[in-house]
Design brief:
Number of strands: 3
Helix content: 40-55%
Strand content: 15-25%
Largest sheet: 3 strands, antiparallel
Order of helices and strands: HHEEEHHHH
CATH architecture: Alpha-Beta Complex
Bound molecules: FE2/S2 (inorganic) cluster
């Protein structure tokens, strides 16, 4: 027997399925790699065209992304995009991760409605900025202590 809460949840999901793919709904409701990271090797916070922000932290080992996490104050689609972009990055070389684009996030999520495609761009842009941050401080990590705080 299903509870009225479960029925309500199913009703919401049925409505969401009319707009979003099953993958996008899953990554939005069960985001992977959510949270900040201590002693990250790369970090970026980027504001999207909508005014929402995303943060991405990276741990790099032997030239590969060992760990990637994210936070966002954006919409459900930005949560799905942050979740997916960090999944796409994990285990890949820096060179490969630099080539992850908005379209890759969209493809992996099974597409997004036109009004939400900028959320995937925010995720891809934040990942790129975090890689840039890693590369900037790679050889002189002590300089992180002197960088401007927000
Ligand atoms: Fe701002 Fe999705 S990130 S609307």
């Amino acid at each position: 027997m299903t509870s009225s809460w479960e029925q309500f949840e199913e009703l919401i999901k049925a409505e969401m399925r009319k707009i979003y793919s099953e993958i996008a709904i899953d990554h939005s409701m069960n985001p992977r790699n959510l949270g900040d990271m201590e002693n990250a090797d790369g970090f970026a916070k980027v504001m999207g065209s909508c005014g929402d922000t995303m943060e991405i932290w990276l741990k790099v080992r032997n030239g590969n992304i060992a760990q990637a996490t994210f936070m966002t104050d954006g919409c459900g689609t930005s949560i799905a995009s942050g979740s997916m972009v960090t999944e796409l990055a994990k285990g890949k070389s820096i060179a490969k991760v630099q080539r992850i684009m908005q379209q890759d996030v969209l493809n992996a999520l099974g597409g997004l409605p036109e009004e939400s495609v900028h959320c995937a761009l925010l995720a891809a842009d934040t990942l790129k900025a975090a890689i840039k941050d890693y590369l900037t401080y790679k050889n002189e990590p002590w300089k992180r202590a002197y960088r401007r705080k927000e």
